[in-house]
Queue: 2 jobs
Job 1
Amino acid sequence: MYKVAKLALTDFKIIFRDSSLKSFLFLPVILFVLIIWVVPNLVEKYDFLLPYLPLFLVVAVIENTQMFCFISSMVLIDEKETDVAKIYGVVPLSNVQFIVSRFLLPYFFTVGLNIVLFLVQPFYALDIGTVLIISFLAALVVPAYVLGINAIVENRLQGMVYIKAFNMLVLVPVAAFFVPDNIKHLFGIFPTHWIFQSVVAATQGLSIAWFSTIGFLFFTALIWGVSKLFIRVHFV
Amino acid sequence: MILVENLVFQYPKTDAPTLKGLDFNIAKGEVFGFLGPSGAGKSTALKVLYKVYGKYDGAVLIDGKNLAEWDNSYFEKIGVGFELPNHYLKLTGKENLDLFATFYKNGQHRDVNALFELVDLKDAINKPVENYSKGMKMRLNFIRAIQHNPDILFLDEPTTGLDPVNAHKIKELILKLKGEGKTIFITTHSMETADDICDRVSFIVDGKLQATDSPKNLKKEYGREAVNVELNNGHVQEFPLGNLGENDAFLDFIRQDGVKRIHTQEATLEEVFIRVTGKSLKS
């Protein structure tokens, strides 16, 4: 456990010493300002935006995950580019310990951010169970995204390109809200679709059991798969 | 300690294997070197031995146990010095060492200050590694590899990027570790390094071992036991080393004029390498 904690804390040390990464820690502040003040004012001024409130909320939930998606991706890409990753291939640290240590803090930090987001958003009164389930589900975007990016890219430049692409991919399921109900689950091939559907169901007072279960299973399988790819390339 | 039999390794999506049936063994307390030009397969062989590449043909035994059967405890036993510096640049030298020490059961075997002092880095211990020169980073690589007191050391080009003084220091430290009973496997394209510290060397070219022996034996086998004499008058002649003091031709020759130079004709390790493999170490 000490190994895992030490590595997790080292990541934070690196983030705070890198001005380009440190600045991303303020991303959630901007989101919170938008959700607490800007969106309510917009909705009050423009009635036609009212039906889109769940969309604002779901996009905020996903964007909350993007801070650590970017930061952790860059930390691992940098580690690969400087060959530090090779050291982890020759120390007594298992692959599982390595992955857990790299995502422990980003995951729970993101869960925390989303819990706070649900508590401070002024639009819906959601029960705490629902808030927790959605927050834990949404934060799974972080390991899936970061491991996926790092299984593909070899340097910072490639990383920036793929991060742009992944940023768009996670939001593609927004389109499901603009298509007929009978085909909206075609967007289910995108894992974030199940987060979107869970949030919307919650805002309508409906059960999120099915959507969140599919979401957890999808993300678990996805993280398992991308972990395999990541392990194959990261330490070599 | 290390036994390798018919080791064959091929990278995915390549037509031919990089390692084509290597056979060698390294005894406990021995410094063994792979000497070869870039691309010969030296680093690939090392990567197989420190378990980065798991899919290979042939047998690799460490302490009599198949390499594939070793679990994570294998990494407690080995230390790896990489060819190029690899550190977290935003962390200090000490933070880098401390981080990797936490992964080992025994942590740091020596006091971290003593480790930095060992390679003349004490003044830089609390400086971010991004402010280190390449030579300083290489020395940090070295102390990271030995900090947990491993039984086996794999050192990839340990003197590359170092000035002569620090290269000498690292070679001295390697010999000191050998004196402590450590088994050390180095790869190098520096025949000087191999000659200075290796008990035995293997010449590796195109993934095959061409010769394995001590540098002394190789030089003796491929060199000439003779002296080359040059006089002040410009005359040059070669004489066999055996019974040189009783060789009348030699004695008559050196009485002709003052001796300007006199050299034994022992081959350098590089010359032996070229003769054995037909290739240059610099290629």
Note: The longest strand of chain B covers residues 2-9.
Job 2
Amino acid sequence: MTDFPRILTRLMTEHPSDSHTMARYEDSGGYQALRHGLAMAPADVAAVIKASNIRGRGGAGFPTGVKWGFLAPATPRYLVINGDESEPGTFKDRQLLERDPHALIEGVILSAYALGCNHAFIYIRGEYPKPARRVQHAVDDAYAAGYLGGDILGSGFDVEVTVHLGAGAYICGEETAMLNSLEGLRGEPRIKPPFPAVQGLYAKPTIVNNVETIANVPWMVRNGGGAYAAIGPQGSSGTRLFSLSGHVNRPGNYEIVMGMTWGEFIEDLGGGVRNGRALKTWIPGGASAPWFVPDEHLHLPVTIDDTGKAGSMLGSGAVVVMDETTNVVAAAHRMVRFFAHESCGLCTPCREGCDWLERMLWRILNGHGRPYDLEMLLDVCDNISPGLRWPPAQTTICPLGPSAVQPVRSILTWFRDEVEAMIGAGRGVEGALVG
Amino acid sequence: MTRPMTQPMTQGTTVAIDKIVPGWSAPNRERARWLLERYPQRRSALMPLLYLAQLEHGHLTDEAQRQVAELTGLTAAQVLAVSSFYTMYKRDHVGRYLISVCTSISCYLLGGDDVLEAVEIQAGAHDGETSPDGLFTVEHVECLGACGGAPAVQVNYEMIEGVRPEKARGLCDWLRTASPQVVFGDEMQALFGGQRSFDWGPSETEGAIAPVPAFGPYGSVGGSS
């Protein structure tokens, strides 16, 4: 388990003082993969990514090679890098952007070459000015070195890169909302199909990939797709950056090979729960993921498929740990409040439903819960995500609404007694006020 | 100014920038010209141009939004649709220092609400409001991507991680007395921060000059620009 290549974090770990610079990146073998890749046919570079079996690191876990295969032949085509990292609990792309921007840029050039794109956009959330500065400087240096612009390294291939800053909207992490945002529109998702690979940016074929996904590309081109696929368990190949936060002793980003158990992840990597307290629950993959509880899930392997089968997801790789002192209704309220705030307002079930859920949880928290609130919470959830299944169905254009359902569903599944007790206690207070 | 692209993407951009925004500083007019060439279509420059307008005027005045509409070939209504959608575009007056306190889940679990309260009291402004002296605007914000260093605070979008309530009070006092023209993330982290999400590496020479994200084209100082 300890013997695997640090694909994403080696440079920043070995050279913390200058891993972001062109000089250090080149000294460490950087931009050699680009030379190698440009000597190959574009389709062969795409085949490397396909063979790697990497699944997108942004949240949905869709196989990148398959997504690339959907790209329509029309031109121009665009590549958009999703650096709008805003899922509560997630801070991995921020580290990659700040500490190793050239790995991303080399990955962008190789990916653009494989896909036949001559213009790539790197969309970075507005609250990340420092990562954006680092990336912009790296882009400038790459232009100066002849890695970007026209006729790259004499290959005849041209690519331009534009770094674009968001302005505080989580929804722009949804790929079609991101494209609208890039077009100077409100960040509202588009109805799919058509998918971006067919009609994306400016209605042209577009591939949208996460920062971490593309930062792996230089390593794959250097070492081969098969070498990447051989790392880790089947279906969850490669190394992956997990963001660990909450009530743990050692929060932070961890590059790991998937397959360890959740118990090992939280205990061995995270140093266990703070202050010697007991683990109550954790979110395995960002605020959109249903919660896990020790009795049921601690022994399960941390893989995309095992987590999915158990009714949740690895999502963006954000693990948020809550100890025994956590008021789960308050925690769920805090997450629902996030989604209510970030709902773009386009679809009624999400716009109204998230707001209802937030207000009902607030009411329960403040001692004004009513006996029928549990049923009403579930009813509102059901109107956003019919059947409350996993993976979730949706009455909305994008998955934001169904994401808001998950914290509510989680506390009503695992901590129903606590919610009921809070409502019961609240009723007493209300009765006293009336009486 | 960053290195120009090999080919300006928007062909034949003949926007009369000097005529539309004669009041803007020369560097910002140059930045506007540069931004308009960054995208295959002119309207894509809307978001960065709104930041630039906000930098010029302190907040997005109606007049500034009409000017940006003219620069991008949009209607004022189309611009308002966008400026009203994104939280970082401020259409009302903002204090000199915008203090954003994260109260999303990871920060909430580790005391972000207490930090917010401390900031509100010490800055003299409630959540969402500006202090009477115009120095501070305080806001609670959703996840800042600093969960490993919770609770997190940003001043003019420059990050400070691992902030405790007493440090938050110190931060407000320091901003009031030291009154820095430029706020640097590393400096504030050293003075008022704690646990970080990851090793930040070498310190940065760029910081923010206004409550607008300090990203090269929109007005940071230090480094290139």
Note: Chain A has a mean pLDDT of 95.
